[in-house]
Specification:
- 35% of the residues lie in helices and 27% in strands.
- By secondary structure, the chain is an alpha/beta fold.
- Strand 1, helix 2 and strand 2 form a beta-alpha-beta unit.
- The longest helix is centred in the last third of the chain and has 21 residues.
- The protein is elongated, with a radius of gyration of 19 Å.
- The structure holds 2-phosphoglycolic acid.
- The site of 2-phosphoglycolic acid has 13 residues, from helix 5.
Length: 220
């Protein structure tokens, strides 16, 4: 191939990432693609459960999770923090309050992601650990649709701050609620047993070299 003759690294980098990280991952790809014009990218985006199913096929070089599954041997690089924050429409009366008691937040109609979502998994785990409950009224299979439903006053929700900071926060406001945000992190994971292609190790080197800088840039 021409690229090989020119000494460029060529091939395909295959990534499978959870939907919430779609706001973040393009920022890791931008400079990489510019530096390696002969590398093509395949980016699969689906919820946590579907990305876990992709681990079975070992088809991808890397996976991005904030809640990696425990039943796979994975090598992981920490990319950045990922706080899950309470949100409401900017016209909602709670946006004017400070230190909102959790019970008051819990009385609002709550919009939650579908079963299989990592965001939902984190919310359920946090509520269980703290012995808390929410008034779940709608199950919605997309962060974008949740943002629009919250914006139009249908209720409140908890989403990754990256869905607002990088995905746009017009019409929305983060709330100051007791027991929240839920802390979590983003990880770049690879199956330990999968052999690394030249393209994959080039990407890993890039993420390791740029990681701190990108994490600072993205720190919500
Ligand atoms: P998801 O992603 O809610 O889109 O599945 C976030 C995560 O896995 O934490």
């Amino acid at each position: 191939k021409l690229a090989d003759l020119q000494g460029l690294k060529a091939g395909t980098l295959r990534l499978a990432v959870v939907t919430t990280s779609k706001y973040l991952i393009p920022h890791f790809l931008g400079e990489f693609v510019k530096a390696h014009p002969a590398i093509d990218i395949v980016l699969k985006v689906a919820n946590r459960q579907k990305i876990i199913e992709q681990l079975e096929t070992a088809e991808y070089d890397f996976y991005v999770f904030s809640h990696p599954p425990e039943n796979f041997e994975l090598d992981m690089v920490l990319l950045s923090t990922n706080p899950l924050v309470p949100i409401a429409a900017d016209s909602h009366p709670l946006t004017r309050e400070k230190q909102i008691p959790f019970e008051l937040f819990a009385q609002q109609p709550f919009l939650i992601r579908e079963m299989g979502s990592g965001t939902r998994h984190a919310i359920d785990r946090h509520l269980k650990a703290k012995g808390l409950e929410l008034n779940v009224r709608m199950t919605i299979e997309s962060n974008e649709a949740i943002k629009h439903c919250v914006m139009s006053g249908l209720g409140v929700s908890i989403l990754s701050r990256h869905t607002l900071s990088l995905g746009g926060s017009e019409g929305l406001r983060e709330l100051d609620v007791e027991h929240l945000p839920i802390p979590s992190q983003w990880y770049l994971a690879r199956l330990s047993a999968k052999e690394m292609s030249v393209v994959a190790s080039t990407f890993l080197d890039y993420v390791q070299a740029q990681g701190d800088q990108l994490a600072n840039l993205l720190a919500p």
